[in-house]
Amino acid sequence: MNWDALIRALTVSPENTIVALVAFSSILVVGYTIGNIIGRNHQKEKILDAQIQLRNTEKELKSARSKVERVEIALSRGEEGRGVWDLEHLRTPSWYHRRLNNSPAHILAVANLKGGVGKTTLAANLGVFFARDRGKRVLLVDLDYQGSLTGLVALGADLDADPEPEVHRVIGGGAASGNELHLLTHSLQPLGGLRLLAAGYELTVEEDRQLIANLLAAEERFSVFNLARYLSAPEVKENFDIVILDASPRLSAATLNGLFACTSYIIPVRPSPVSNRSVAYFEKQVVEAIRPINRDAKLLGVALTMTVREGAEGSRDKTFVDEIRQNFAGRTGEYGMLAGAYPDGVPLFDTRIPNLAEIGRGIALVGGDQNSKTLLTSFCQEVEAKLENQ
């Protein structure tokens, strides 16, 4: 622009000067107004964005607060002896109560919340008894990430290495039972042809994931029914007569899967004050949390293991049995609710498994001495008779 010419024009004609000043002023006013409008709109957008962010933050804080409250409630349940799992609001799948139409006749869990009481020993020997001595088609399921049952049957079958663990895929819901049945299980011909669903440390990762999801309600809580769903597939019934579950000594995701899948269960217990409390506590958990949903789960009996026959230790065993009977009769305040569950008293197996090295070393029915084989056979026959009378 030629500024000199513009200035001369304004100087020569006052009218031009006035017009120019008015126009310039108008331009300034319009520009200011437009800028002000744009600024206000920009501020409104910023305020709106801030409000949206605030609402999102409030939602996140509310969700986080809810999750913290759920964890606190879970911890209080644990302190009250009810376990940290939220089973009170568990929604049962529509197929669950029809599952036994397709399941094997017997799904037997060997379980207790105390370790070192002979669960794995009994489960392994029961598997061999039914498969080898009775010609039944048996599926053993290892539900402990330590893989004790897996290692024991691998030793009994004289395998070079433990079978590949696969049970975590079933507990996690990622296994389709019918198509993958023989891929997930391992045939053990030296043990009567029974098949094993093996466990390993992969299971603990899945269990942790499910516990966190349950506490935080991060997903549908059907995970505790995954094993029941697997075992209810027609292909399982077509291939097996009996399933034996070796549960872990804690109320883990895998143990809950086993309790919601089973039709009966055995509680092995070693005579001692700690075991006395554990067996009643475990049964209290089952009666209060499991049986309202799994109405088919029946206590087959309490099995006394590692007992002593003579002397002062033997009398201690008798005292222990008396205490168990009192607890199951509901004569103690803590377990009073068990009285209604067992009006005829606690079912105890007659055969007691003594504290013999031959029994604890491996599968007695495979490599034990004659005395061990006789004792374990007698116990297995009792189990067989109880199952037939169910």
In summary, what is this structure?
The protein is of the alpha/beta class and 390 residues long. The protein has 16 helices and eight strands.
Features:
2 domains, elongated, Rossmann fold, 390 residues, 8 strands, alpha/beta, single chain
Description:
This protein has 390 residues and is an alpha/beta fold. It has helices at residues 3-12, 14-79, 119-133, 148-156, 167-171, 177-184, 202-216, 226-231, 234-239, 253-261, 273-290, 311-328, 338-341, 357-361, 364-367, 370-388, and strands at residues 106-110, 138-143, 186-188, 194-197, 242-247, 264-269, 298-307, 353-354. It has two domains: 3-61; 96-388, Rossmann fold (3-Layer(aba) Sandwich). Helix 1 packs across helix 2 (14-79), helix 3 packs across helix 4 (148-156) and helix 11 runs parallel beside helix 12. The longest helix has 66 residues, at 14-79. It is elongated and about 130 Å long.
In CATH terms, what is the fold-level topology of the largest domain?
A: Rossmann fold
Q: Could you estimate the helical fraction of the residues in percent?
A: 55-70%
Shape: elongated
Radius of gyration: 35 Å
Query: Approximately how much beta-strand content do the residues carry?
Result: 5-15%
Query: What string gives the helices and strands in order?
Result: HHEHEHHHEEHHHEHEHEHHEHHH
Terminal CA distance reads 107 Å
Q: What strand line-up does the widest sheet have? A: 3-4-2-5-1-6-7-8
Structural class: alpha/beta
Task: Tell me the number of helical segments per DSSP (H or I, 4 or more residues long).
Answer: 16
CATH-derived architecture of the largest domain: 3-Layer(aba) Sandwich
Q: Any idea what the CATH superfamily of the largest domain is called?
A: P-loop containing nucleotide triphosphate hydrolases
Please give the domain count. 2
